[in-house]
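Please check our next protein.
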Amino acid sequence: MLVAAAVCPCPPLLVPEVAAGAAPELDGARAACADALGVLAAARPDLLLLVGPGDSAGPEAYPQGARGSFRGFGVEVDVRLGHDRGAEPEPEPELKPEGSGGELPYGLAVGAWLLGGIAWPDVPVEGIGVGEDLPAERCAAFGRDVAAGAGRVAMLVLGDASACRTLKAPGYLDERAAPFDAEAGRALGAADLAALGALDVVLARELKVSGRAPWQVLAGAAEGAELTGTLLYEDAPYGVGYVAATWS
């Protein structure tokens, strides 16, 4: 059963070494993510599952110990799921979603980096990458399966809103971006499962929203859990929408 969730943005710029001179501009987002992870730790889960944007259609599993890197961004920063506990990579789970991953995709790597900054309880940590084209109903169904498959499950859900908020944004300005982000932020802050499930797959892809599929996995996992949401952060630096929230 899902007992808590943290929703965090996942731009590699959250890693100060990647952001370099621009690092202070995301201090607010980093602080909100740290607060959100504190809520997860306080829930005392039996399993922490990171869910973020995937490199394939997915879902794709990444076991505890899976490694990621920010070397592609020009910095020698490496991460590992559960690395703070000194564990070696564990075998693949017996029941994989649809495949098993190699190196962590960027969103899960950011999540692993965030976890490395706190004292996480001694519980298993696993990752799931979800492709941007995975239909909403399949995201929700997978979320329900995950929540039913273990005892007390906590989720760190990683993903960004639109990348089309300004003329200088990665996706250039799209007038549909701000309304989409406003509704997504409201739904994440209110733990509104129906609204998250209704986010349009095609529109999200056109607006370069990396969080749509992970958010809809969360919505499926939260069915029947009666969690309430709190919005911790919402902004669009660099023309990209970032949201942090907790569900508990």
Remarks:
- The chain is about 30% helix and 20% strand.
- The CA atoms of residues 5 and 155 lie 5 Å apart.
- The first strand starts at residue 2 and ends at 8.
- The longest helix spans residues 27-42.
